[in-house]
Fold:
Amino acid sequence: MSEYFAPLRDMRFVLELVGLEAVSALPGYEEASADVVDAVLDEAARFTTEVLSPLNAVGDRVGALLGDDGRVTMPDGFAAAYRQYADNGWNGMGCDPAHGGAGMPHLVVAMIQEMVMGANMAFSLCPLLTAGAIEALSLCGSDELKRIYLSRMVSGEWTGTMNLTEPQAGSDLAAVRSRAEPQPDGSFRIFGQKIFITFGEHELADNIVHLVLARTPGAPDGVKGISLFVVPKFIPEADGSPGERNDVRCVSLEHKLGIHASPTCVMAYGDDGGATGWLCGEENRGIEYMFIMMNAARYAVGLQGIAVAERALQRAMHYARDRLQGTEAGAGEGERVAIIRHPDVRRMLLLMKSQVEAMRVLAAATAAARDHAAHHPEAAGRERAQAFVELMIPVVKGWSTETGNDVASLGVQVHGGMGYIEETGAAQYLRDARITNIYEGTTGIQANDLVSRKIARDGGAAARAVIVDMRSVVAALEASGDDSLRAIAEALSDGVAALERCVGFVVANWRSDMRAVLAGAVPLLGLFGRVAGGWQMARAALLAHERLAAYDSESAFYRAKVVSARFYADHVLSQSSGLAHAVCAGAVSTLDETLA
Structure:
């Protein structure tokens, strides 16, 4: 079975394409020079390839185990790998230096995260949730909470979770019933049960910091009455060291299709008198605060879709180059050839490769915009960048995870019957990928967010601003004089027109026929992802075309970039008109009452 190898050359190309130099010039990011970033990425590649990737298969086979004493045991090697991860500073790579972080840009952190996720998706979920908890505490926690928790979470000594879902309250958080009773000392007693809590219990760190949604007495009904609480596994002593065990327990682990080494816990709060917790921020603003974590997690889950697709691609490429089967088409009685010589296998591999590249560069462009939104010296620059980030988060999450599933499935198909056999590894990637378009908000939830909050709310202004940028790339392709680039321009132009039609449909019909718009929300998200990915692939083709004239030593790499973009235009962007029809005309049959 082939192992994971970080796609460093492609990542460096992407960093150049989306503007690492401009990000490094932002106030606060001066330390992220090109040589520093290169060194960081090299070390991340070494760590993920040598330490995390070899644990991927054993983690899948053994999984996390819950003992009779309530302790969760991780597969062999995970605890040592996590200690290395924390000791080497990876956990705090993007965190504020004031709390012990390295302060690296989101753009660089995204590349590191993809490597960790590609090497070992189950392992990556622990630091993913911790990062979201750090962000929420940084923005909403009191000075005392920050003093006690942040430096220890940034260092990786303590990990974090998010506790939203309950048996009766899945995506409908208005139905949350967990309660928080105020105590004379200012703390709260927390009672309730939470389900689907990733790394809710484990042995990797000294403490686990749960961020929990619950209701205080007299709180309003619905989402407006939910508050956020910090509930540690061990109650910190005055000096911050873990003290008395809190009244919170993992009572069972879910038996899942994939990510077996990520313990998905049912957590019980208050079975023995109440779990001690502290209010984070103001009462009744818990949903608002939790969405700080949620948006960070949604972007990161989009990266998971890319990462598992990259690993599936590597496995499929390795197999296709080694597997001898059949003769070359049209060669008659020739020798058997590697299956990568067969046209349909090449089609599948290029469909995998081009979509992985498109997803990666779109996610990187979004990460770079996050950096500009936080650090641009001008308010107008920050606002433009933030509008782009908010528009793209549901696209990165929804489209990348749906596409990640498709790519992982293609990886199985490339293997043929061997792909259905666990030992090859291809099946694990498909099983692991399947959760990505479900957790942190299903694709339908992402699509509803895209059409309602990100397109309809501003009258399509943010989406149309992106469309303007897309059309400028079309013009540059058309002016290139290159036949392949002109073919890409034609496909991208058609895709942009389809997207613009759908944005207009949403804006025109949202208030008068919301159900019809929502019926086409997922096709619209898929269209937006394909066209936005095609936009970025077109930019990549332009840059590669420029480099071909100057860098003979890497001509094969740059030619492959142009070919990949052309394939994407022919096979992925060409789907745009059909998706636009589904968005604008598909509601009639979708909403017909015969299904009920």
Residues 286-322 form the longest helix (37 residues). The mean pLDDT is 96. The first strand starts at residue 65 and ends at 66. Residues 53-88+120-284 form a domain with the Butyryl-CoA Dehydrogenase, subunit A; domain 2 fold (CATH 2.40.110.20).
